[in-house]
């Protein structure tokens, strides 16, 4: 796990440097928007999604510069979702990654615009020729990220999450699984698959990484729900205990802590099994599956 910790730290530093390049500081009239975007995206966070892009790309010999641009795009998309998720109209959170949320540090209107701009910039970066020389690859990256983020992905999952809070009866396990797949899992699945897209991988290997990401995302979400129950705000870098108070639909709430933990462990093992065809070069991805359910923040 020490090797993974070092690899995660190195990747986080590289991704932050890439984000610094693709979200430049501005001295123009729109400088406040750039400042808010940088505040939201640079520094803090596990960079798990960006790490998945980098490690997936490594399996196919993709150049580091191209992989970092794709990783930065995924992290911008993720940052946008957090900025909007924290707004008063959504989860109304004051703390994210150990610091005030964007709408607290700036204001609500700026937070909305910063989220919008981060999302747009993610696709701008992916579609740029510096990310890949082949326009078909760039188009595929944009297509798959849009699908993961849109109404059949992250945004759809957020809608289901909001509706679940108003439901008169608890959701069944299959419905909760679909909600979490869309809200959290689809972006993690794309992050795992992005390296295969960049490397023009054979369909079987691309599918293996996609399946790994899907199971990893499910395990990660259960672990996140457990952390919301057990971690302190200082450990988590955000408010905790809010999911139960808000009546959010989670597998933890349905199954209880012990059964939910077992489910996360099964999913992590299943995720690692999808990597069998990659041999030792995917050892960090296997270690990540274990880390996803054992982390403390």
TrEMBL record:
It holds the Pfam family polyprenyl_synt. Keywords: Isoprene biosynthesis, Magnesium, Metal-binding, Transferase. SUPFAM superfamilies: Terpenoid synthases. InterPro entries: Isoprenoid_synthase_dom_sf, Polyprenyl_synt, Polyprenyl_synt_CS, Prenyl_diphosphate_synthase. It comes from the Bacteria. Its cofactor is Mg(2+). Transmembrane segments: none annotated. PANTHER family: FARNESYL DIPHOSPHATE SYNTHASE. Belongs to the FPP/GGPP synthase family. This is Polyprenyl synthetase family protein. It comes from Plastoroseomonas hellenica.
